[in-house]
Amino acid sequence: ETKYGSNSFFTLYRPCTIEEFIGSSSVKTLVANYLQKGNLPHILLLTGEAGLGKTTLARIIALSLNCENSQNNIPCLVCSSCVSIFNSNNIDVHEINVGSNSGKDAVDGLVSDLSSAPFSSKYKILIFDEAHRLSSAAQALMLKKMEDCYSHVYIIFCTNEPEKLTSKSS
Question: What is the value of pTM for the model shown?
Fold first, then answer.
């Protein structure tokens, strides 16, 4: 029997709470404190070496923010929001693999409706994996959306090359 309907080895054993996350204790403490106090920044940049857990931490943040039954911002992992995020089919939480979708068109479709309220969750969350691969046009579009960030939107950039998240020539 599989956990939450998923058969993927990586999905079965991926950490789902801050406590399960193996990594920097200072980062764990920082994120846990932000979540506990309810003052997590709406724009996050998670950086570090490949395989460090940046995207996993972003998913844990999405679970923690949108859980319907969280206790002290610890996701229950059984409510419909947790299960849909865990199974990557939550309409309000999107993980974008920028390695395969780096252009403005791919990003535009996701950010065009950020001003509207979440459909079934507390928050809309965009997770950009390999964010350093965003095209210049996509970065410019994201910059505008970040300037207008809404209280119901969180944007998380995960990258191991943060220096490439600047204006660049096409």
Answer: 0.88
